[in-house]
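Continuing from yesterday's entry. The apo prediction looked reasonable, so today I'm repeating it with flavin-adenine dinucleotide included to see how the binding region is handled. Same sequence as before; SMILES copied from the compound registry.
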Amino acid sequence: MTSQVVVVGSGYAGAGAVKAFEDAVGEGEAELTWISEHDYHLVLHEVHRAIRNPAVEEKLMISVDEIMSEQSTFLEGRVVNVNTDERVVETAAGDAVEYDYLLLALGSTTAFFGIEGLKQHAHQLKGIEDARGIHEDVREAAANATRSDPARVVVGGAGLSGIQTAGEVAEYRDKHRAPIQITLVEGLDEVFPGNDPQVQNALRQRLEDADVEILTGEFISKADADAVYFGGGEDEDETTLPYDVLVWTGGITGQEELDGVGIKKHDRSNRVMAESDFTTSADRVFAIGDTALIEQGDDVAPPTAQAAWQAAEVAGENLARAARGAPLKSWRHDDKGTVISVGEKAVAHDVVGMPIKTFGGTPAKLLKKAIASRWIAKVSSAGRGVSAFADM
Ligand SMILES: Cc1cc2nc3c(=O)[nH]c(=O)nc-3n(C[C@H](O)[C@H](O)[C@H](O)COP(=O)(O)OP(=O)(O)OC[C@H]3O[C@@H](n4cnc5c(N)ncnc54)[C@H](O)[C@@H]3O)c2cc1C
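Holo prediction written out below.
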């Protein structure tokens, strides 16, 4: 009998897995239903570009029809539950889709760590609507500001999203000669925490050159409609940082739709625990991308687009293998380096094949563009990839 394969999510993990599955599956072996809350793939790792220039959106949103083959079925809907006993995926609209094999690739959601007022008052950046909202608020705040009383944009969290967001707001400020003051706040001791000091220093330098004020070692303890607060615990003075626009990119956590689903998750991050072949504690359920903590020896794969699309190639093939009863393949993350934008500039670090460990300038900028274009070409068409190059 033909197996029913279901993939949930149209990010790097879901879109990549759909393509890989379609390439690997034999005729009549399995049918694919692809479910996502959006009928497009969003190039999330470049979504910050839309903060500066919303016209970039069309380059970042790729219709699922451009990605999947006519043999597969797409269902637009928000998955609200997975019944792992009955093997059914349930959507908010009341659809119930049966599966023999399921791949969860729902990405992650923003972690607010219970910080009082943060969720209510901060923008997050996990989708195109978020980028639109930040753009609108920055534009409006700048329109109401003056050189002597500039609009204050505070970005919390100096990881990939926060650094690139601050860089885009700075680029917007310069392009429009807008009175905007930007502060990037990081609770740990340096920007891009946990990474090599060489890349941290290079990023700090680019951010400072772009006139972004950096506050490190400062944990936000509270936020209200006008300011974020630091300290304020016992024997601690509370300090205040007023803002007009607040963006929070300080961490990720698992999707709450999976909370009640009988699959083993990590205690703190609530992300699904997966083996290196993407199997989970639930029979016939696989997980990849930001949704999962994929075992890699003593460590887990990082929550990056690079890791998601690498994993997707093997996960898609594994779905086809599972359907035909073949042994599954294990996956090992191969870190090919990092390229991070600060507006029009970029910093590249540890890039495979490059003789210099950390570099900026035109080579890093072109590399950043090439990475995004290559992915877009891979999931859709070469023409689309080429046309996106200039805007990345
Ligand atoms: C601003 C920003 C910059 C970044 N920069 C980089 C970078 O430079 N390099 C890098 O490697 N990584 C970067 N990242 C991280 C990278 O984007 C993520 O690791 C990557 O998107 C994870 O891919 P994914 O497919 O697991 O999840 P996503 O890309 O988040 O995709 C999840 C998909 O699931 C869908 N979905 C979610 N919930 C449901 C539901 N309940 N029902 C149905 N569908 C659902 C979503 O709509 C989406 O289609 C950045 C992230 C951000 C936000």
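Comparison notes:
- The chain is about 30% helix and 25% strand.
- Residues 153 and 245 are 5 Å apart (CA to CA).
Will overlay with the apo model tomorrow.
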